[in-house]
Design goal:
A 3-stranded antiparallel sheet has the order 1-2-3, with helices on one face. It has 146 residues and is mainly alpha-helical. It has helices spanning 8-27, 32-45, 82-96, 102-114, 118-134, 139-145; strands at 51-56, 59-64, 70-74. The radius of gyration is 19 Å and the shape is globular. Helix content is 59%, strand content 12%. It has one domain (3-115). Helix 1 (8-27) packs parallel to helix 4 (102-114) and helix 3 (82-96) packs antiparallel against helix 4 (102-114).
Length: 146
C-alpha cells in the first residue's frame, strides 16, 4: 500500500467505493468476473495491491492480504439493468485512469445507487390507467405517487 493510504479515513473510503461499485454491479446483473475485476482494478488504482475479492450471487467479500482488514456485503436483491452496469463501469474506468477523484467516484456511484431502472419507470407508467380503473376515487393521489 502506498504511504498516503495510512490515513484510515481515505483507506476506508477506498474500500467503501469499491464495495459500492461491486454491489451495484452485482445487483444490476453483471457477471461475477466483472464484479471481481472492477473491484480489484479500483483497489489497485488506489494503492491497494495485495487484495482478494470473492463475488457470489448473494454476497461480496473483500480482503487485504497480510492484514486483518476484510469486508463482506450481502446482496439481497437483484434485477438486470445493463444501463447501470455500463454506468458503474464508466465511473470505474474514469477513477482508474485518474480522470476523476475518489470523492467524485463515490458521489457518482451514490447517484447511480438511487437511480431507478428504466424498466421500473416503464412499468409504473403502464400501471397508471389500470390503477385508475380500480381506484377512481383516488385518481389524483395515484398519479402523484407514480
Amino acid at each position: 500500500m502506498r504511504g498516503s493510504m495510512k490515513e484510515s479515513k481515505e483507506f476506508n473510503q477506498v474500500i467503501d467505493v469499491l464495495m459500492l461499485a461491486g454491489t451495484l454491479l452485482l445487483r444490476s446483473g453483471a457477471e461475477i468476473y466483472r464484479v471481481e475485476d472492477t473491484m480489484v482494478r479500483i483497489a489497485h488504482s488506489q494503492g491497494i495491491q495485495d487484495c482478494n475479492v470473492l463475488a457470489m450471487p448473494a454476497a461480496i467479500f473483500f480482503s487485504i492480504e497480510n492484514t486483518n482488514i476484510s469486508r463482506m456485503k450481502r446482496v439481497t436483491s437483484s434485477a438486470y439493468n445493463i444501463e447501470k452496469v455500463c454506468d458503474v463501469n464508466q465511473v470505474s474506468r474514469q477513477l482508474v485512469a485518474g480522470e476523476i477523484s475518489l470523492n467524485e467516484a463515490e458521489i457518482a456511484l451514490k447517484r447511480l445507487q438511487k437511480k431507478d431502472s428504466p424498466i421500473v419507470k416503464k412499468k409504473s407508467r403502464s400501471l397508471q390507467p389500470s390503477a385508475l380503473h380500480f381506484f377512481p376515487s383516488c385518481s389524483e393521489e395515484i398519479y402523484s405517487m407514480l
